[in-house]
C-alpha cells in the first residue's frame, strides 16, 4: 500500500504516498471509523513539499520544504518544516518552521482540519446510496470540534486542540509569522476521538457522571497541561511499552544481518499490530484496511509467533472463543462452534448493512483454532488456559466433524453461496481456478483445508490426552489417519503433485499451486509422499527464488502480479518451509528461508508485506504488489517460523522436552535464541555447526526438562 501507517492499539493513522493527511483514503481511524479525514498545513496557501519521511511503529518524522523563488545561493526550500507525529492514546503532531532564508520572512501558516466519520467500507468504496447525516463543526482559536450522530444511533466526536492558538479564518486556523533568519516557530496539535458527546474540560471533570467513552486521556478539571508535556508523556509511554515487549519476547543473535533485521522488524510490527480486546494482545490482520480481528489471520500469525511469545496465542484464542458461533444465522454464515472470519465495529456493521458483527464466512478458521489451542497447550502446558478453552474446543470439534462437512464424505467444504465465494486463505473470487483457467464449480474442498483438518484432529487428540481421556485421543488419532489416506486417494495426482481442490462434482482441480505445501506443515502425508511433494514445490515453476508462487508459472491462469494466482505470500512460503523441516527436508527449508531473506533486503524498512510479485528472483528484489497491506500480521510473524524451521523445533511441556533437529546452511554457522518460552519458564538456546552436524547448548531450562535431538553422530 502506497502510504505510511502509525498504529497503537485500535487507533491508527494512514497517510498518502507524500505522507499527507489530505483526503482520499487517508485518515485517522478507530474501530472502522475515519475520525479525521484532513489535517493539513499550508504555507502562504501552498502545500509544502515532502522531502523525506521516517516511520517506526507509532511515531514518524518528516522533513518538508516550502519553495521560495531562488535568489543568489539560497535553497529553493529555504523554509524548512520539521514534522513529528505520535499515535498513542491520542494523536499528536508537532510542526516546526525554520527560516533558512537570509532575510526576514513574513509567512501565513494555515491549519485545515476536517472529519467525515466515514465507515471503513465507505472509505474503501462501498456503494452506499443513502445520504449520510451532516457533521457538526466548530472552529475556535484553540482548535476544532467535530461531531457526528450516526445512523446507527452512536454519537462520535473528534477534538483537535492546538497550541499556540491561532486566528479563525474561513473555518481554518491562521498563524501570521514573522521569522528572522534562522528563527523558528513551533505549533502542536492533539487529536482525541471517541464515542459519545464529549464535554469540554470546563463542563465536566474527567471520570464524572456522563463522561463518554473516549480513546484519548481526558484532562482533569483545572488548567490544561501544555501539549509539549502531554506529547512527551505519550512518547515515554510508547517507549516503555516497547521496552516491556522486547524484554518479554524472544531475541535472536546470528551472524546473518538479514535474519536479525527481519526478526527485529517483525517483533516491533507485531507489537504495533496488536490490539487488546479484553484478553490481551491480539494480532490484527493488517493495515490500513484490515486492522481488525480476523479469525484465520490472527490464528496463523499467533502460531507463527509461538516461538517469540505465547501471549499472542493465548489472547487470540480467548478473544475468538468469546465470539464463537452459537446459533444459525444465514446472513452472517454463523453456525454453532464456528470461529469468526472478520469482526467490524463501524457504522455499517452496527446498522446491519454488512454482516461483519461478526461474519463467519471461513472454512479454515475453525480447524486453525483447534491447531493453535493444541500447540499452545503442548508448548506451555498451561492447565488453566486449556480448561478455559475446553468448551470452545469441543464446540469447534463438533463443527469440523459435523456441519462443516457438507456432504458427509469426511472433508471440509464451503458452498460458495455466501458473501465470499471462496472461503480459504486464498479468498479472492478467482483463486480456485482450473487448469483451463475457468472457475471451479462449488462446493469446494480445498486441499490445504483438509490438511488443517488432519492437524486439528491430531491436536484434539493431544488435548483429550491432556485432559485424561486417552481412549478418546486414540479415536481422534484414528480418524486423522483415515483422513490422511483419503487425501492421498482423492487429491494426489502423482509425482509429488496434488490437486488444488475437489470441485462440486468431487473432481480434482488439477491446477498446480502452493496450497498442497500446507499438507507438509500439517503432517498430513506419509514420508514418501512428503518427500515427493517437497521436491515438486522446489521446481522453478513454483519456487521463484524468493518464495513459493501461489500458482505455478506456465499455468493458464498464472499472473505474477495477481493477488492469489502467481504472487508470493511470505507466510505461505514460511508454512511450507516449516513443513519441509518436519519431513526432514532441512536443505530445502533453508533454501526457502534464504529466499525470503534475500527478498527482504530490497523491501522498505526490511518489512515483509502481505505479498509481492512472483517474478523470478533478480536484481532489485521482488516487484511490490500495489495494494498489499504492510505491516501485515502473518507476514510480520514469518521470521519466527523461519527460525523454527531451521531448528525443526518442538516444545513438549507434558514430556518436559525441547526437541530439535537443526539444519544450519553454510550462510548461518550459528544461531542463538534468548528468552525462548518453554513450559513455565524461558531458556537460552545456541546451535552451532553446519548442515546436520551441529552442537546444541541450552541454559535456563525449567527443572526436570531436557533437550532431545536425533542421534546423528553430532557432538
From TrEMBL:
**Cited InterPro entries:** 6-hairpin_glycosidase_sf (IPR008928), 6hp_glycosidase-like_sf (IPR012341), GDE_N_bis (IPR032856), MGH1-like_GH (IPR054491)
Boundaries of each Putative glycogen debranching enzyme N-terminal domain copy? 6-189
Q: Any coiled-coil ranges, and where?
A: none
The chain positions of domain Mannosylglycerate hydrolase MGH1-like glycoside hydrolase read: 297-599
Q: Name one GO biological process term.
A: carbohydrate metabolic process
Family matches, as Pfam families: GDE_N_bis, MGH1-like_GH
Q: Where is this region: Disordered?
A: 196-225
Highest taxon of the source? Bacteria
Q: What is this protein called?
A: Amylo-alpha-1,6-glucosidase
This protein's species is Limnochorda pilosa
List the lineage, top down: Bacteria, Bacillati, Bacillota, Limnochordia, Limnochordales
Amino acid at each position: 500500500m502506497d502510504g505510511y501507517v502509525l498504529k497503537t492499539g485500535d487507533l491508527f493513522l494512514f497517510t498518502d504516498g507524500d505522507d499527507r493527511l489530505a483526503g482520499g483514503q487517508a485518515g485517522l481511524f478507530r474501530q472502522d471509523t475515519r475520525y479525521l479525514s484532513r489535517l493539513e498545513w499550508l504555507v502562504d496557501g501552498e502545500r509544502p513539499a515532502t522531502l523525506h519521511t521516517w516511520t517506526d511503529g507509532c511515531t514518524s518524522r518528516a522533513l518538508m520544504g516550502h519553495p521560495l523563488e531562488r535568489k543568489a545561493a539560497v535553497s529553493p526550500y529555504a523554509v524548512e518544516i520539521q514534522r513529528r507525529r505520535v499515535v498513542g492514546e491520542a494523536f499528536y503532531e508537532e510542526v516546526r518552521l525554520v527560516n533558512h532564508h537570509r532575510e526576514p520572512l513574513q509567512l501565513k501558516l494555515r491549519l485545515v482540519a476536517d472529519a467525515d466519520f466515514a465507515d471503513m467500507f465507505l472509505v474503501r468504496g462501498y456503494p452506499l446510496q443513502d445520504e449520510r447525516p451532516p457533521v457538526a463543526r466548530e472552529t475556535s482559536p484553540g482548535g476544532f470540534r467535530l461531531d457526528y450522530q450516526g445512523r446507527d444511533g452512536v454519537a462520535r466526536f473528534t477534538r483537535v486542540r492546538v497550541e499556540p492558538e491561532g486566528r479563525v479564518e474561513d473555518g481554518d486556523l491562521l498563524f501570521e509569522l514573522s521569522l528572522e533568519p534562522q528563527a523558528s516557530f513551533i505549533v502542536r496539535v492533539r487529536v482525541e476521538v471517541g464515542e459519545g458527546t464529549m464535554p469540554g474540560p470546563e463542563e465536566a471533570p474527567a471520570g464524572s457522571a456522563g463522561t463518554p467513552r473516549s480513546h484519548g486521556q481526558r484532562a482533569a478539571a483545572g488548567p490544561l497541561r501544555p501539549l509539549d508535556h502531554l506529547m512527551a508523556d505519550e512518547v515515554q509511554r510508547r517507549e516503555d511499552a516497547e521496552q516491556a515487549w522486547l524484554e518479554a519476547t524472544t531475541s535472536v543473535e546470528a551472524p546473518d544481518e538479514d535474519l536479525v533485521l527481519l526478526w527485529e522488524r517483525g517483533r516491533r510490527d507485531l507489537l504495533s499490530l496488536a490490539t487488546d480486546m479484553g484478553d490481551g494482545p491480539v494480532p490484527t490482520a493488517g493495515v490500513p484496511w484490515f486492522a481488525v480481528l480476523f479469525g484465520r489471520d490472527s490464528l496463523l500469525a499467533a502460531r507463527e509467533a509461538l516461538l517469540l511469545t505465547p501471549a499472542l496465542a493465548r489472547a487470540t484464542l480467548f478473544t475468538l472463543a468469546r465470539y464463537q458461533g452459537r446459533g444459525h444465522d444465514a446472513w452472517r454464515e454463523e453456525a454453532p462452534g464456528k470461529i469468526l472470519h472478520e469482526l467490524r465495529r463501524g457504522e455499517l456493521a452496527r446498522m446491519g448493512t454488512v454482516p461483519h458483527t461478526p461474519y463467519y464466512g471461513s472454512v479454515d478458521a475453525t480447524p486453525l483454532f483447534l491447531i493453535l489451542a493444541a500447540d499452545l497447550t503442548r508448548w506451555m502446558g498451561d492447565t488453566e488456559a486449556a480448561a478455559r478453552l475446553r468448551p470452545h474446543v469441543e464446540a469447534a470439534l463438533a463443527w469440523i466433524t459435523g456441519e462443516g462437512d457438507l456432504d458427509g464424505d469426511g472433508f471440509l467444504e464451503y458452498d460458495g453461496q455466501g458473501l465470499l465465494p471462496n472461503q480459504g486463505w486464498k479468498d479472492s473470487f478467482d483463486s480456485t481456478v482450473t487448469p483451463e483457467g475457468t472457475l471451479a464449480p462449488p462446493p469446494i474442498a480445498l486441499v490445504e483445508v483438509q490438511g488443517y483438518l488432519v492437524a486439528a484432529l491430531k491436536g484434539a487428540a493431544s488435548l483429550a490426552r491432556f485432559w485424561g481421556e486417552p481412549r478418546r485421543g486414540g479415536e481422534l488419532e484414528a480418524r486423522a489417519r483415515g483422513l490422511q489416506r483419503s487425501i492421498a486417494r482423492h487429491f494426489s495426482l502423482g509425482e509429488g503433485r496434488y490437486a488444488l481442490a475437489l470441485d462440486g462434482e468431487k473432481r480434482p482441480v488439477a491446477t498446480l499451486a502452493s496450497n498442497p505445501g500446507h499438507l507438509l506443515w500439517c503432517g498430513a502425508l506419509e514420508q514418501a509422499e512428503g518427500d515427493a511433494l517437497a521436491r515438486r514445490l522446489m521446481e522453478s515453476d513454483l519456487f521463484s527464488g524468493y518464495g513459493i508462487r501461489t500458482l505455478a508459472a506456465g499455468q493458464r491462469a498464472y499472473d505474477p502480479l495477481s493477488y492469489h494466482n502467481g504472487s508470493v505470500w511470505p507466510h505461505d512460503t514460511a508454512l511450507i518451509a516449516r513443513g519441509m523441516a518436519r519431513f526432514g527436508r532441512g536443505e530445502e527449508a533453508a533454501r526457502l528461508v534464504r529466499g525470503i531473506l534475500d527478498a527482504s533486503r530490497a523491501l522498505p524498512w526490511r518489512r515483509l508485506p502481505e505479498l509481492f510479485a512472483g517474478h523470478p528472483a533478480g536484481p532489485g528484489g521482488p516487484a511490490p504488489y500495489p495494494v498489499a497491506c504492510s505491516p501485515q500480521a502473518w507476514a510480520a510473524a514469518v521470521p519466527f517460523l523461519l527460525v523454527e524451521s531451521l531448528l525443526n523445533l518442538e516444545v513438549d511441556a507434558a514430556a518436559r522436552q525441547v526437541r530439535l533437529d537443526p539444519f544450519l546452511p553454510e550462510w548461518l554457522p550459528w544461531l542463538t535464541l534468548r528468552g525462548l518460552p518453554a513450559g513455565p519458564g524461558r531458556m537460552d538456546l545456541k546451535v552451532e555447526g553446519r548442515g546436520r552436524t551441529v552442537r546444541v547448548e541450552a541454559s535456563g531450562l525449567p527443572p526436570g526438562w531436557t533437550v532431545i535431538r536425533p542421534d546423528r553422530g553430532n557432538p
